[in-house]
Automatic annotation (TrEMBL):
Keywords: Membrane, Transmembrane, Transmembrane helix. The chain crosses the membrane at residues 33-55, 67-88, 108-128, 140-163, 213-229, 236-253, 259-276, 281-302, 373-397, 404-424, 430-446. InterPro entries: WaaL-like. This is Uncharacterized protein. It comes from Paractinoplanes bogorensis.
Amino acid sequence: MTQAVTAPPPANTGKKLRLPAWPVASILAFYPVWWALGLGVLIFALMAVPMLFLLIRRRAAGRPLRLPPGFGWWAVFLIAVVVSIGALGADPAGTVAGHAVGRLPGAGYKALMYASLTVLLVYAGNLTEAELPRRRLVKLLGWLFVVTVLGGLLGMVAGNFQFTSPVEWLLPSGVRNKGFVQSLVHPYAAQIMDIVGEGQPRPAAPWGYTNTWGNNFCLLAGWLVVAAWQTRSGKAKFWAVVCLVVSVVPAVVSLNRGLWIGIGVLIVYVAIRYVMAGKLWVLGAVALAAAALGIALVATPLGDTVGARLDNGKSNGVRSFLIDRAVEGFQGSPVIGYGGTRNTLGGRNSITVGESAGCERCGNFTVGGNGQLWQLLFAHGAVGTVGYLGFFAYGLWRFRRDRSAIGVAASGAIVTSFSAMLWYNSLVTPLAFMVLAFALLWRNSIEGETT
């Protein structure tokens, strides 16, 4: 009786089953290029296609596909996003009446982006050290902080800089002239606002909005520090310090109070983590940095800028008004929400002030447009909010013992995003950086490098 002989697998099978790094790496490394082309945040949806294909191909070939810890929470959120679309036709009290069909594109866009970032999360978490080393991913995120600072400086010195992107040229004029479409495909350096003076440029490049610029500033700052200090190059450390010092200028000039609070939250969190690990020197470093910042604010015009911003809280009334509307809307549909945002009838002082062809931003404020928390409550109800917050909160708890530099930076980014959700929306790039931070925590735990 002869024994069957099984032919060995082809030598290159392992290589075919490997996940390439380019879908993730190209998004991050070439983001300024995508922005200039008019792709911007759309690149996440475009790259989700090959990522999903590669994940399915590897799973079909018998390779295991890991899901992140606590993914059940995220699945609940995604289900809530889809189910809540059924409520798009509802008109909560005090909002502009409309039809579900007219609201479907906006809701569909958000659902597509949530799905795309889910693919990014799973793909980045399944990459191995041989495919995309964590240190390389950290460097790419640190690079994007440099891009953020450069974009901030561009917004300061050339606030009116803008140009028509190639993608924008391809769109019909009736589409590309819409304010929302402009924010996606039209590159510009800053948003011009009159918060402390007429025509004040506030940095936005390459993230589309000043608030998104400030949110990403907080989410990415820690990665530059980790990337620099993980190298043996004294030159890299020097330039990282220079970048951090220079970044103070656009951070202050942005007049972004949420950014200032977020950086404070990040510094306090990181300091607590290091003190708990017995590294008391961090207290001296924080005190030294605080003293240097104080001197800079006193000795330069930056202090006057901060003072002027604190004295001019023009947005406070609008934010309070929108928070009240979001809470009232949540009470009207507490389980699944309304599937998306709504526009208020007029402004906070009068229902007669509204949007027109000549002034798209007059009145008709967006309920759910002033913070991720309020959007979650209003658009996706308690189910969606619990699923979203539960996923990231579970990640913080699950990886709480990760005391590595990557672990502290990643958890710090998620913690600061929790404070930011009171005034910033997360789609698209802030949430992308949040899921990448989660993926790094997840991969740290798999590799066993948490100290």
